[in-house]
Amino acid sequence: MTYSILYEKITDPAFPSGYYYATIPTLDLTTHGLGLEGAREAAFDLAHIWIEEKRAQGESIPIENESFFSRIEIDDAVFSA
User: Are strands 19-24 and 6-9 parallel, antiparallel or unpaired?
Assistant: First the structure.
């Protein structure tokens, strides 16, 4: 099975510098790790455990068909109101 991962740099001061969130939208899972590789490894480990648990419970595993990514810009006026 293949799943897309969305990475987002963590800017929360509670986290040390260099950490990223890794989200697998199809599985509705989010984790984090140091650097992109650390975040990818954390996402792989989490997905693996999650899928094993779903299978053990006899539940279905979502399959990703297509994945798209886009960005939008929100006018600063929205935030200053």
Answer: antiparallel
Nearest to 5 by CA among 46, 43, 62: 43
Residue 2 is assigned to a structural domain of this protein: yes
Measured in degrees and rounded to the nearest 5, phi and psi for residue 43 equal -65, -45
**Residue 80 predicted with pLDDT over 70:** no
Provide the pLDDT for residue 17: 95
- Look at residue 70 and tell me if it is in a domain: no
The pLDDT assigned to 75 comes to 79
**Does the structure show a pLDDT above 80 at 46?**
yes
Angle at 40 between CA 35 and CA 44, to 5 degrees: 150
State which residues form the domain around 9: 1-60
C-alpha distances out from residue 15 to 8, 27, 67, Å: 13, 24, 29
User: pTM value?
Assistant: 0.85
